[in-house]
Request: fold
Amino acid sequence: MTGTIRTDVLIVGAGPIGLFAVFELGLFDMKCHLIDILDRPGGQCAELYPEKPIYDIPGWPSISAQGLVDKLLEQIAPFKPDFTYNRMVSSLEKLEDGSFRVTTDENEVFEAKVVVIAAGGGSFQPKRPPIPGIEPYEGKSVFYSVRRMEDFRGHDLVIVGGGDSALDWTLNLQPVAKSVTLVHRRPEFRAAPDSVNKMYAMQEMKQLEFRVGQVAGLAGADGQLSSATIKGGPEGDIEVPCTRMLPFFGLTMKLGPIAEWGLNLHENLIPVDTEKFQTSVPGIFAVGDINWYPGKLKLILSGFHEVALMAQAAKRIISPGERIVFQYTTSSTSLQKKLGVLEAS
Reply:
């Protein structure tokens, strides 16, 4: 992407609350662009426990975390939101006309009249694995996410982990890498069974290697890896070729650069009012787990409620003076047309 990207509402965070915000804002004809540090929508739900059942979503006695994300994506599809993944918001500036300029860690620039922070507990930061001497290789031959598959073409790749990210990238990068070795401390995985089955099938066909054990050491020079030592497996300590490594050891959550935006904070959370869920800066809202107010409950359903009220206030900022008519999706033909339930005349 080049140049300034303009939208009505910039949503920081593409978890369930950020996704539902697209729906509520879309009902008021507001265009949304979402930024997330992860490589896919869903936030903590999709990344940390995609198959974990959730029991307190109204109308769903039980739904998996990934299932909820999938349903939300289906629900907001009529509003055609834009997404930018693998990015962290790094700075925010309020412009003379009252709108906001937001810059990412890749120097992409967004301008929006309203900013909605729906970042859960903050931005996800990858956990550094307990591998001695890994620091000099980080950002040069050890990476915690994949931004361009081409960066791994022709390399001896070691992927470490047992979740969906590790299995997905094992399968996706195998066609471009010179070799792929997947390392996990046990033969059981937390990833989708279909991905695990595909990985084992590729191992049978000798298209990749799966090693039980842990990476215990690295070899290389000037930030460039040459090999990795794996211990704890049935073959004892072994050394495998490794010029690129992708460790997936989970994520931690930090408020990150948002803490420098000049917002009032309460114990690393963002205080809001309970009428609009606006922060101390007019035009910036915070919804979901990242906000705080007396009586706050960190529940997905609470975030859904917050989003509905936020959207009303955001509309008044984006369309000042326009009369807002409260409508029900069950009876409003205009809303049903937006949702694609009725054909537009």
Summary: The chain has two domains: 5-124+252-339, 128-249. The CA atoms of residues 130 and 216 lie 8 Å apart. The chain has a mean pLDDT of 90.
